[in-house]
Amino acid sequence: MSIDTLDPSTPPRTWTRRHLLSLEELSAEEITLILDTAVGFKETARHARHKSSLLAGKTVANLFFENSTRTRTSFALAARRLGADTVDFSSSGSSLSKGETFIDTAKNIEAMGVDLVVVRHRTPGTPLLLAQNLGVSVVNAGDGPHEHPTQGLLDVLTIRDHLGRIAGLTVALVGDIAHSRTARSNLWALKRLGAHVILCGPATLVSRRWEELDVEVCHNLDEILPRCDVVNLLRIQFERQSTSPFPSVREYAHLYAMNGERLCRAKDSILILAPGPINRGVEVTPDVADGPHSVILEQVTNGVAVRMAVLKLLLGGRP
Amino acid sequence: MSSLLVEGGRVIDPAEGVDRVTNLLIEEGRVVGLDVPANGQARIINARGKIVSPGLIDMHVHLREPGREEDETIRTGTAAALAGGFTSIACIPNTEPPIDTQAQVEFIQHQAKRADQANVFVVACVSKNREGHELAEIGQLVEAGAVGFTDDGAPIFDPELLRRAFEYCLMFDKPILNHCEVRELTKGGVMHEGSVSLQLGLTGMPAAAEDVMTGRDIILAQTTGGRLHIMHISTAGSIELVRRAKSRGVRVTTEVCPHHFTLTDECLRSFDSNFKMSPPLRTATDVEACIAGLRDGTIDCIVTDHAPHAREKKMQELDRAPFGIVGLETALGLVSTELIEPGHLDWPGAIAKMTCNPARILQLENKGTLRAGADADVTIIDPERRWTVDATKFRSKSTNSPFVGRQLKGRADTVIVGGRVKFVAD
After folding, report:
1. Do residues A13 and A33 lie in contact, with contact meaning Cβ atoms separated by under 8 Å?
2. Looking at the domain that runs over A149-299, which CATH code has it been given?
């Protein structure tokens, strides 16, 4: 594992933000600070026996207005391994079905004495709305197709772990870019850290307008694959699509599934990421998902470390 | 009612080609004439340094009553109109129930009379229950006083219904006002589709959704000879379609809202629902096209599309928050600050788009002009007055404005309706 070493000539890096709402607003230095902090938590992240008491006495509320298993679990573990208490709130069986607005729901949770709110919601901008209306820290755990900052961070950390750097790498984000918050968070972090980003997928899911942001857009995976250092396979979000963006799953898999045959055309050192959950056989075939280039499970482990780092930076420095 | 002299103001009456410093005499609720010396009139208003305009007309206002009185009532809406300098407004029929019968029209007129503030003209539904299927009883609605027909809130989506409406309305020489939006292209949309929506992950509403229907409507107006008024135009493409249609002699007019010539989709980066309206805020190119359309006369009117929503409705997730913003109390200030100050329009040009042009489109007799015999609706504008938009001062029941906190120059100073002073600025 290689880690970017701190240049002693750079001024001490400090964290000043109260919320983590997006990666678009973070500087390269802030992103690197989170990644470096996460590296320090890797052991604690993996083993419950290394539990810390850094955030003892703090309470983290998970407000999930949209279904999630792994992200919610990951945040809960991260909080507990830092000694914080956690409280879970999910929209099913809550007062949301009784007509209460989500801001009122959040304010009620806040009034119970929590220090930080982790929020997932189907609508972009909702974490910002909460940050404006609550007095506590807010972490965006996915707001519709907008951003999923900790997912972006853990993907970047996983790449950095394996390839030692981000700058100069060619990273392809493949699949349902239109509906993917992971794509957006990855894009901002990768660009900020100096990677070349390619967005690849069907034209109905990958707009040419992305080129305005100095990002490469390509609809042919086979064409770009030989140049890629990393391929991140994004899930087709069938649940967010109002009209079918491609003729059939079969045709999608034919054009974009990462399978053994395609992999032969890639660099030997290629890294395969998938932010899960994955549709096996659609975005990636099992031989590749479970093969030597895949770091899918490492992403999950890094997820806990990254979330510990975020919680520590947001809660640790304040009285 | 006795005489009232407005003295020493710059009288601008585009309908009559008047623009000079003079006096205006009003008697018995009517304009007597200009150039009358002060001579013992019962009341004299000093308008020196101010502009004396025909009462401003906003032909696109949602008053919400009946049915959504938590957002606005005819009383609060007409009070907001006066504060913004409007002496007449046309209200849009997407109330609950919709204004699609003679009785409904008369209810609005009755409430407006009770409120006794700005004049209210009714634009009634094209279709029964605003459902877009069967024509409403247009003949009887005209008899009741309806000045135009629209299903706004929703587009007239069925081209056959629109064609019949054009043909039928020809008998009464009334315009069809359409909200141009192909809903299949805007499903789930909350903002303009472009690079900003792409970055924010918000579902977009493409300009094409507006342009496709604008084009369809123009073709149907042309084939039927009907009168088409495109509501709240917002895209460069639609403006160009109207420009070309006008040059071919199609009977088409259009209007633009202040937010579409001042704001862009970049505003949505705040995720603030006060930037959510339909049509959505477009790009800088579209803003330029709106201004160009105002300059060259393609765009006939400036309207507010005043769409009040109670705070609890707007204080929601962006996809749940309703479309629309209030506009009556900020429109004149925005016209002055954003169109006149930079030299895009002069005062006579801007005033025409808020007086005689809407009066002509809706055939409002004796409105929108200061010629002798016209109704004494007068807006005295202080073009130099600097003020800050303050939601706590709104007369409207709702405060959903994206312009709160904005510094403006120019506002209504004194508003006269039917010869009576109805509003004086603090």
Report:
1. yes
2. 3.40.50.1370
